[in-house]
Amino acid sequence: MNLLLLLLSLAPPAPAAAAPQEAGGVWHPRVEIAWNRYYPYEGLLDIEARLAEAWPEFVELRDIGESWEGRPLRLLVLTDRRTGPAEDKPAMWVDGNVHGNEVQGGEAALYLAWWLLEHQDNPRAKALLETRTFYVLPSQNPDGRDHWFDTAATAHSSRSGVRPYDDDRDGLLDEDPPNDLDGDGEITMMRKQVPLGEGTHRLDPDDPRILLPADADHPGDWILLGSEGVDDDGDGRINEDDVGGYDMNRNWPADWQPRYLQYGAGDYPFSFPETAAIGKFLIEHPNVAAVQSFHNAGGMILRGPGAEYVKYPRSDVRVYDRLGKEGEAILPFYRYMVIHADLYTVHGGFVTWTYEGLGIFSFTNELWAPQQYYGKDREGSGGWFARNTKDQLQFVDDLLLGEAYSDWKPYHHPLYGDVEIGGFKRQHGRVAPSFMIEEMCHRNAMFCIRHAEEIADVSFSRVETEDLGDGLWRVTAVLRNDRTMPSRSAMAAEHEIGAPDVVRFVGDGVTVLTGGVLRDAFRPERLELPVRRPERILLRSGVPGHGVVRLSWIVEGAAGAPFRLEYEADKADDTAFEGVLGGTDDAQGD
Amino acid sequence: MLHCALLLLSPLLQAEAPPPYGYAPPEDLPETLTAIAADGGAELVEYGHSPEGRPLLALTFGRSTAPGRPEVLLVGNLDGARLGATEVLVGLCRRFAESGSPLLDAATVHVVPLANPDAAARAFRGADPWRGGPVDEDHDGLMDEDGPTDLDGDGLALWLKVPDPVGRWRTDERDPRALVEADAAAGEAGGFRRLREGDDRDGDREYGEDPPGGEDLDANFPHRWPQYRPEGGPYPLSAPEARALADFVLAHRHLALVVVLDDDDAFEKVPKGADRVDRDATRPLQDDREVLVVWSKRFRDLREADAGEGRPALPAPRGGADERGRFGEWAYFQAGVPVIESALWSPPLDRAPESAPELEKDAPDELKLLRWNDVAYDGAGFRTWRRLDHPSLGPVEVGGWLPLVLDNPPASDLPRLTALWGDFLDDLSGDFATLEWVDVETTPLGSGVFEARATLVNRGLLATTSAMGVRSRRPLPVRVVLELPQGGELLAGRRLQSVERLEGLGGHREFRWVYRLPESGAAALRATSQCAGEAIAELEAER
């Protein structure tokens, strides 16, 4: 009976009291942040600084490294330090913007921190910061981010960092980037009118901004000439050696493959200062139990594997599926997908490394889905980057009064002669439009919160001592985990990643004769004897999600002799139970 | 040094002491290399340092600014216990400094005699060359808590021979020293366990299973990195020595050859070739293999020629090349440079004291090694089993091969090995790719318009880029440029062209251009490369 009551009291928290705003009050957050815009890196650092100043007992800023160009990788360490230091709690890592152009991950990551801080009246938000730590790195690639803001770019350019790379293998570095020929601060497209019948395209009679493919009935009089640019290095090619030329999300150690097998891989894992610094931090912080990385676009909740080289253990896949499906409900138009099976093959990706290499349950979200332009899956608006130009233009015209589009303008090109330059600007297609940013950030933050809430929470739910006579006792303990995630992922257990969970029996006046994991709750002799001394039992698979591990010891000691059970895990809170031989029969860990 | 001198003065001595007798302490290496650099005009480069603070050193010979000059890298002893490789490479440095080499006329040569100085320092003292950061080999949440331990006070942690009714080792009746694995299929029963000398400090009944460190420098490279093996390290190039060596290779864009002297061998018997490579490739591409076969034969011929009366040929090294994450494989499959991987030396299996009875061919190697040990070292390379009262196992025996003995040649073989490798390297001088313009023809087409035809040919044995280099896209292609004088105009053809690869021994590519020349000035062809030199041809026609 006692046990049943205990179970009820440990059930997942009931829906919390509403935060002030939702309760109808007038809300005055300590830090006012405009969530209707994207910030250059300096702006993200400023938000971090303001949060740290306003919430000193919750926020600590730590520089964990520097980018290639010397920008700080400033980690926002978020926890209620009054309940213990950050490193003593299981943690969630949240980052964004490893691809320089995928900027909104930075805002999404910081929104999570801001929202949790500003909702400390909410019992669930409060409990989360009391018992968990968030390591928030708004940008893995601040150089690429600023390059996207500061120089002429497209929605897709500046994915790389800015360390020079010889893309065209001519011994010169970054010598032929796209060129902003018309000086409008954007890299758009070039098109040229040619004699009728010689073109591949024709103008859409309804909207001459749009090119339609020529066909037998409609001969073409236009050709497409690619992105704005000239042949800077005179090698007969245009725009073939842009700034940078690599992909830091192919530079992580799990299944890393060289450039000839994986574009952008870098010389070797951690060959970039940014990945090296982040990798070092994660290796040195085994308390990280959950990872979320923000990218754009397409509306996806992605997990590994990134390639077919490894199989994920079934029990872990169940955890992923449960969180992923919940994410689909929280994030309309997002689909829960497996990277290599549903998207494409990625060698050396970040979240595949954090799971396959570090044993951490990890997701990548591709923020912003084209269906969101109209709030519904409008026919023909699909595709990752919304390739239906007509619909996209209608959106830009109706809701942005044309601002995200650069109209075609004539230009005299040194090679192609008279051409036109124009097209969508970088702000369109992959990032949410300004008025939709906050919703994107909020829904993704809630997904992170659900992930963090499901980090293993292990306690001694029941401890009994049984008098066997002659000073002998049987001590039986039940370790219970009330969350979805196990205290050690099956991947970590299978490949011996990190340390196994440990249960210690400590008692000065008590001698442990034998002990181990109890495999059958009704047959006390079905003990799995440990390899080594029974005072220190290793739980190689940890404590399963929503499950228990039973342990039992035969000990020698006087009635009333005190003993202590200690549980330690990399990715769950440590806990302990103190009792006496012949004492009360159930308890909860401290 | 003193040991060496004594050794050379005693040619009649039948048996010498086993290594490290006659070997220089690795700790002396910085001083030795500094002195060689000073004497021989070489450049001493510190390309990094080890976790214990020892410098990682390379000596560079024959540096030149000539365009397209190839570079060669000689690397030894990533393992740490392969002190023979270090000795031979230091010997080669001395030879380069004192007598030069045709190789230095053709190429810049970098020598890294000791890639793993921390491990070598331990190995020289007779300890296991454990390296790298702490690794929890037995996955019990404790680090480095149960390494091999010296129990009998001889200063070495060797082996325990433990009576055990279910043990799978047995004593061979032909030699009581030989502890060999019982072959159940041949009706043999065991009776012993073979354990590392140690006292099971963590009480898990394993002996020496979680020693200090545990990452293996030569399992820490990114090609076929053993992701979930302790020796692979937490990530590729996590070992500072490995990272520094990789950076050294990547920074030297003119490398035409890497020679690795360590514990793996893919040179004595060149592995079969492959038509394609993938992430798990172990075989060289067929085109690259052909050169290795030529060199391997040349090397074996030199070794045979070195033998003489009363002077048996140096033993051929044994050992495969199937370990994952090796430097040699990485340098080939990822950096794209041709690689020779040699284990340098292995104890011969065909030497025995004259009095010894014949052994069947399929007798266990352990017996053959013990006989060789009797000839080479008067038996001193093997510590005969002696009784020991083990604290937890009771009466056992302790003994076995001394460290270094099976992996390093007797000191008396070192000069011969050095000379052999020196002669082999001398002969490489003519093998490098060399660009040349041939069949250069200029035809006037009238009105100042000319057509030029020319063929670019590679005269060397090596291709301008290895087949793997082409695949990896790391080496840069040969660049061919038509240089026109001011006012000249290209009418047909491409001004700038890339040639990924010209094969060895006559690989060629023909080019054509049509151009108009101004009143004065001539056109020229220029081909530049990373390691096949530069070729320039004047196009003779003038207006």
General description of the model:
- In chain A, a hairpin with an 8-residue loop joins strand 18 and strand 19.
- Chain A is built from 12 helices and 23 strands.
- With 590 residues, chain A is of the alpha+beta class.
- Chain A has 3 domains: 31-148 and 247-370 and 435-452, Aminopeptidase (3-Layer(aba) Sandwich); 165-242 and 387-424, no CATH class; 458-580, Immunoglobulin-like, CATH 2.60.40.10.
- In chain A, the strands form 5 sheets. An 8-stranded mixed beta sheet of chain A has the order 1-2-4-3-9-12-10-11, sandwiched between helices. In chain A, strands 15-16-21-18-19 form a 5-stranded antiparallel beta sheet, with helices on one face. In chain A, strands 8-5-14-13 form a 4-stranded antiparallel beta sheet, with no helix packed on it.
- Chain A has helices spanning 2-9, 41-54, 104-118, 123-131, 142-150, 273-283, 314-330, 339-343, 350-356, 389-400, 437-453, 490-494; strands spanning 59-66, 72-78, 91-96, 133-137, 189-193, 201-204, 207-213, 222-227, 288-296, 300-303, 335-338, 361-367, 405-413, 417-424, 458-469, 472-481, 501-506, 511-518, 527-528, 536-539, 547-556, 562-568, 575-580.
- Chain A starts with a helix and ends in a 10-residue tail after the last strand.
- With 543 residues, chain B is an alpha+beta fold.
- Chain B has 3 domains: 21-130 and 213-345 and 410-430, Aminopeptidase (3-Layer(aba) Sandwich); 159-212 and 354-401, no CATH class; 435-539, Immunoglobulin-like, CATH 2.60.40.
- Chain B is built from 11 helices and 20 strands.
- Chain B has helices at 2-9, 29-40, 83-99, 102-106, 117-124, 240-251, 286-306, 327-333, 365-377, 414-427, 467-472, and strands at 43-49, 55-61, 71-76, 108-112, 159-163, 169-171, 179-181, 192-196, 255-261, 339-342, 382-390, 394-401, 435-446, 449-458, 478-483, 489-492, 496-499, 508-516, 523-528, 534-539.
- In chain B, helix 7 (286-306) packs across helix 10 (414-427).
- Chain B starts with a helix and ends with a strand.
- The interface between A and B is medium-sized, with 36 and 34 residues.
